[in-house]
Each structure stands twice: as C-alpha cells, then as structure tokens.
Amino acid sequence: MNRREELAAFLRTRREALLPNDVGLPAGRARRTPGLRREEIALLAGVSVTWYTWLEQGRPINASIDVLEALARSLRLDDAQRQHLLALATRTSGEPTPEIEDAPDALVRLIESMNPAPAYVLGPRWEFLAWNRSQSRLYPMIDRLAPENRNLLWVIFAEPTARELVTDWNVQARRILAEFRAGTASLRTDPKVIALVKHLHAASAEFTSLWAQVDVAQFQTRVRHYHHPRAGDLAFEYQQLTPSEWPGLKVVCQLPVPGDDSAERLAAWRSFA
Known about the structure:
It is a single chain. The chain has helices at residues 3-16, 38-45, 49-56, 65-74, 79-90, 105-113, 133-138, 152-158, 160-165, 169-183, 191-203, 205-211, 262-267; strands at residues 119-122, 128-131, 222-228, 232-241, 250-256. The longest helix is centred in the middle third of the chain and has 15 residues, at 169-183. The two termini are 41 Å apart. The chain has 13 helices and 5 strands. It has 2 domains: 3-90, 434 Repressor (Amino-terminal Domain) (Orthogonal Bundle); 105-267, Beta-Lactamase. It has a 5-stranded antiparallel sheet.
C-alpha cells in the first residue's frame, strides 16, 4: 500500500466509522453502506464531492493544509489521526531514511544504567538496535532472533513466545500496531517498511486483519503485564523517550511500578533454559 492508497483507505475507514448523529446530520433514509456518505463529508468540509471522491480513490491530487484541517474536523479526527492525515497527504520524497545498524554508544550505556528495569532502543522502522540485561531476562528470545526478525512488530505478531508472555496480547498488539502506523507514516514508501509489512501479512492473520482497519494512535504511558515462565506475573510502566540528538530512534524503558517487586523478581533469574 503506497502513501496515496493508505490515505484513501484511512479516509474511507474514518468516514465509515461515523454516524449522522455524530456530526449533527439527520439520519434520513436507510443506508446500504456503513457510515457517512462521501457527499456528506464533502458538505461538512466545504469541498466538492468530485474532489473528495478523487482523494478517497487515491488519485494524484493536492490538498492545502486548510482543506486538510477542514477534513480532519469533518471526520472528527483526534490529534494522532489528524497528524497521520497530514503526514500522508503532504509528505514529499525528502531525504532517504538513514541506515542505522547499531545504537549509539551513549544510548547503549543509558539503557544499561536502567537495570533492573527492562529497556531497549528502537530504530526508525522499530527494529531492535540494543537492549539491556533485564530485557533479555524478560524476553530471552530477543538474544536468539535472526537479524531480519529483530523488530518489535515482528516479535509481537509472529513470535509465539511473545504472545505467551504478554498477558493482554490482543489489547497490546492492537495498540502497538496503531502506534507503529502513526509513527512511520513518513516511511510508508520505504522499501524495508514495505518488506516488513509484506512479511507480517504472510506470517500473521491477526496482523492482516488489524492492518486493514488503518487505526493510528499516539504513544501513551501505560502499565504492561506479563506472565513470565520463571519470574511469575510481572507489571511494568511502559515509557518511551526520543533522544534529541537522534530523533529517528526511540528509547523504551519499562519502569518498576511503585510498590511492586517485578523488577527484583526478574533480576533474581540470571539465566534461562
């Protein structure tokens, strides 16, 4: 799915998710398809039906920021969805995505200092660049992954051990995919992102189903729960940082929850079978 195709799918799914009552329109006669009609969105945004139809069909047309903002208001988009719309509709070719094979030494030392909290560094395509000892204890498979599979999205959807580890896998998988989609909108034509998505379609029916929903979300701090085979039930507060010197990278740290001993119990296990 290229950028224009994704923009078309995003507009269509958001339109189909709305009801007339959501935007102050009368319900009118029975509808054969879900959601609002294209002419209703065009009316609300103050654009022609033909122009909006072409945009939703993925045709090569341009839109001003003012018109895109009007569409965002008409579709009742939240901030993450609005940013995603703008990224898809206004992105130019720009500079190529930098190839980063290793995390900067400063970030490696940073995540090591976070022990006993599990922590790792993600690259622009959400590939694992580095992780600390506690992350290896939380998810031992990370040390054994083939280089082409060292990616957070691949681990969540295609590695059975991760599915067994994450307690609320269905909730977390949906959330992580929505965050990935929002965070990589500018990379939608990147060959490695395209290859990753294709690889996941072949490996996971759940990925294919959720990808078709075109959901996006901004990162939110949350508590993640794990059922660890050796350390028992664990809980960590999921935090994400973006280094100012390396804005394409992410530092993810799973902090101990106040009053909980998950980090200590995890640190007590120094080796795994």
